[in-house]
Every structure is written in C-alpha cells, then in structure tokens.
C-alpha cells in the first residue's frame, strides 16, 4: 500500500452484480475492516435492488466506512476527481 500512500477511497462499481451470497458479504465486510484500518473508505456505486436487499440485512452497511452512490459518476464527482486522476497515472 505504500505505493498509494495518498489513497483515501475505494469505489466498487456494482452495476454488473445481480446477486450476492453470504461468503461474498463476509469478504466485503473483511475488506471494509481492513481498508478502515488503513484510513481508506470503502464506497459502492450502482447497486441493483436484489443486491441492496441482501446488503440491508447484513452487518456491512452498519459498519461501512464510506457511502453508497446511485451512479459511478456521482461517486467520482463527490470524492474529488483529482484523487482518481492521480491514481490512474
């Protein structure tokens, strides 16, 4: 992670995810916890209804360090495009 010392946010675009199972939810909970230890916020965008239903019944949303965005564009806009442009270089 030292290569990306200025990384503040991770955004997972969920537009292609139609279903999610318990093991995936647990993995995302672990990812959120590990990123949180590094002061990096986990965010999601474009979550479909059935996936959101499962997320709402999990522990993940209660402990999510970041936010859920309706669109990936909205996430990029709010989280500062400069940060994402630097990470793309």
- What distance separates the N and C termini? 16 Å
Hey, roughly how much beta strand do the residues contain? 5-15%
> How many DSSP H or I helices?
5
What's the Cα radius of gyration? 13 Å
| Order of the strands making up the biggest sheet | 1-2-3
User: How many E strands?
Assistant: 3
**Assembly status:** single chain
Main pleated sheet: 3 strands, parallel
In round numbers, the mean pLDDT is: 89
Would you list the SSEs in sequence order as H and E?
EHEHHEHH
Q: Please mark out the parts with pLDDT under 50 across 5 or more consecutive residues, or reply none.
A: none
Structural class: alpha/beta
What is the overall shape? Answer: globular
The percentage helix is 40-55%
Outline:
This protein has five helices and three strands; from the N terminus they run E-H-E-H-H-E-H-H. By secondary structure, the chain is of the alpha/beta class. The relative contact order is 0.22.
Describe the structure.
Strands 1-2-3 form a three-stranded parallel sheet. It is globular and about 35 Å long. With 89 residues, the protein is of the alpha/beta class. Strand 1, helix 1 and strand 2 form a beta-alpha-beta unit. The protein contains five helices and three strands, in the order E-H-E-H-H-E-H-H. The mean pLDDT is 89.
Write the layout of secondary structure elements.
Blueprint: E1 9-13, H1 22-37, E2 41-45, H2 49-56, H3 60-63, E3 68-69, H4 72-78, H5 81-88
Parallel strand pairs: 1-2, 2-3
């Amino acid at each position: 992670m030292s290569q990306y010392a200025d990384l503040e946010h991770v955004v997972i675009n969920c537009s292609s995810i139609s279903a999610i199972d318990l093991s995936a939810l647990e993995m995302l909970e672990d990812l959120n916890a590990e990123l949180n230890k590094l002061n990096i916020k986990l965010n999601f965008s474009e979550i479909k209804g059935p996936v959101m239903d499962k997320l709402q019944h999990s522990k993940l949303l209660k402990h999510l360090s970041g936010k859920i965005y309706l669109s990936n564009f909205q996430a990029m806009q709010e989280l500062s495009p400069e940060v994402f442009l630097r990470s793309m270089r």
